[in-house]
Amino acid sequence: MCCTGKCARLVGLILLPSAFICMISNLLLFFPDGNNLENNQISLQVWLMGGLIGGGLFMLCPSCSAIRAGGKGCCGNGCCGNRCRMLNSVFSSAFGLVGAIYCTSVASAGLAIGPKCQLTDGAWKYPFEDYGTGNGSYLVNQTLWTICEFPKNAVMWHVVLFSILLCMGVLQLVLCGIQVVNGCLGCICGDCRESKDDEGGL
What we know:
mainly alpha; 202 residues
């Protein structure tokens, strides 16, 4: 049987690095292909900071709360312990769900619309926003990527980083959902571990 405390700690230990991955990915989106652009040359989806805020800052509280819930409880040990921290992790994970949904939504929009780049006429536009989905999408037809003159690898940079944000957002959404259920079970039933199991590890 999987203990609620062990499950909570595992969830927290996965959420924490995923938050930093989201923040780093979002920050890199501000510098496509390593170039420092003007504010009006950066796409709106980057400025919405789905990774920095939703998948990053919003996820720090749930991850730390889940890790703490996997430690010794403040209400005793064994089956009656850890209810306080488990209850706290439920509310924190619900907060994390909001962040994960925001991160996933912004990343999806970013991939659907595509990057903002400079075209051959010198104008900065979203050249792929009208291509739609399916076989005509720029995500499938990479020959369309040459439309962007500058930054040189803007499309690749955009697709890779927003794909990372989308994957991390979905992962965080699943993990926060698991922890909401796990936290409720832990709050009601307590932690099934023996007190000696709390001394270290998962």
